[in-house]
Design a protein that fits this description.
Elements (H helix, E strand, L loop, with lengths): L2 H19 L2 H31 L4 H29 L1 H20 L4 H29 L5 H26 L5 H22 L23 H36 L6 H21 L5 H26 L3 H32 L6 H29 L2 H27 L5
Helix pairs in contact: 1-9, 2-6, 2-7, 3-4, 3-5, 3-12, 4-5, 4-7, 5-12, 6-9, 6-11, 8-9, 8-10, 8-11, 8-12, 8-13, 9-11, 10-11, 10-13
């Protein structure tokens, strides 16, 4: 029993201990991740309220615009990935971070609907493209054996920063005044500008000649086409493991409403999920440092997702505290799904990409993983509405895919052509 507090303390302090042993470049990645995640948390907590309450745009119009911007960012992601390979990942990351800073500052003072549309499109496209360029930059800075571990550390830091940013935004916007919202957005822009400046201290990325496989549509029936198709298939399986997050954020409140339970439990579920990710991400990621290990971990993630879906189904048949106990078990299963899925995804995304086209394959991975996540949002709503046996049918399908996932990943890796 005495060892439990020590183990808990070790998990909490893992990112800080890593920081003391990290190289200067890795320390800079940790610091910039902390800053950007604080900005992300603040923007996420304040932006919609600002757009609807502060600027008096309709919620439906804002949601549609953000959805269209996300789709545009997904389409341009491959282009940004190729640009990162050609211009240098660090250089493009700096450019897009600076663009974010300008766009969000302009967004805070949008005088009309037309300029607001332009600024939010620019901000979201620069943000998503910057994430792809940042992933390629990390591949240049961190050696291949350490990438999964570093990403796990950065994710723990990011989740902490998001919580801090959301708390700061909540305090700043308590009175729901226009000036408070604008101060939050200007703070987000300042953090983006500081991040862009800090990245200049990282090593300059190499500019690479166009990779022969880095084409959206390679020659039909060629080995490059099969390799890219296998890579997208792998990314879609990884994306399916990420749909647990949609079930948590969208399915949980809808499930509570349908079952006549207090919706306040949604916040508790999200907080518990976030805390567990901060504590356990580094530890869980140790199982994803080989191709076989990442395939097994991805399969385990999907099987755990199947258990979570089934638990929602069981909970819908229960009442009161028994239903809440089933919900708590489902949230725990979703957290395990998330921890395992992202860890496996990091390894596969870097290991199965061509070393000379990390940007392009980062964009390809993002596009492939986004497909099941996009389908999950309406799918979860339909699942909650249908209820009953539908929960168990979906759970069975996910379970079968989870059992087949290690073999599917192994087969995909054999199809993907990796040359130095």
């Amino acid at each position: 029993m005495k060892d439990r507090p020590r183990r808990l303390g070790t998990m909490v302090l893992a990112p800080f201990r890593y920081y003391s042993r990290a190289s200067p470049n890795e320390r800079l990645l940790i610091l910039t991740t902390a800053g950007s995640s604080i900005g992300f948390g603040a923007y996420g907590a304040a932006s919609i309220l600002f757009f609807v309450d502060g600027l008096h745009f309709s919620a439906e119009w804002v949601a549609s615009l953000i959805g269209a911007a996300g789709l545009l960012a997904l389409v341009t992601g491959l282009w940004f990935g190729r640009l990162a390979d050609r211009l240098g990942a660090r250089e493009l990351t700096i450019l897009l971070s600076a663009t974010e800073a300008v766009a969000v500052a302009l967004l805070a003072y949008s005088p009309n609907r037309l300029l607001f549309t332009c600024f939010i499109l620019l901000f979201i496209v620069a943000d998503r493209g910057g994430n792809i360029a940042w992933g390629a930059m990390l591949a240049d800075i961190v050696s291949a054996p350490d990438r999964t571990r570093v990403r796990a550390i950065l994710r723990s830091v990011a989740n902490t920063g998001i919580a801090v940013g959301a708390g700061i935004a909540a305090i700043a916007t308590t009175r729901q005044e226009l000036q408070g919202y604008r101060l939050v957005l200007l703070g987000v822009g300042l953090l983006a500008a500081m991040r862009a400046a800090a990245f200049r201290f990282l090593p300059k990325s190499r500019r690479r000649a166009p990779s022969p496989t880095a084409h959206i549509f390679p020659r039909w029936r060629s080995a490059d086409w099969r390799a890219n198709l296998a890579f997208v298939g792998m990314s879609m399986i990884v994306g399916l493991a990420s749909t647990g997050n949609r079930l948590l954020l969208i399915g949980t409140p809808l499930w509570l409403i349908k079952n006549g339970l207090p919706t306040a439990w949604t916040s508790g579920a999200i907080v518990a999920n976030g805390v567990l990710v901060i504590l356990l991400q580094v530890r869980v990621s140790r199982g994803a440092e080989t191709l076989g290990g990442s395939g097994s971990l991805l399969g385990s993630s999907l099987r755990t997702l199947a258990i979570a879906v089934a638990l929602y189904g069981v909970g819908s048949l229960l009442h009161g505290r028994s239903a809440l106990v089933a919900l708590a078990a489902a949230v725990l299963a979703l957290t395990v799904t998330e921890l395992q899925g992202v860890a496996a995804g990091w390894y596969l995304r870097y290991q199965l990409a061509r070393p000379d086209a990390q940007g392009f394959y980062g964009g390809l991975h993002t596009a492939g993983a986004a497909v099941p996540v996009a389908l999950a949002s309406p799918g979860v709503a339909m699942l909650v509405d249908g209820g009953g046996v539908a929960w168990f049918l979906v759970a069975g399908g996910v379970l079968l895919l989870g059992m087949a996932a290690p073999r599917l990943i192994s087969h995909a890796s054999q199809q993907i052509v990796i040359r130095p």
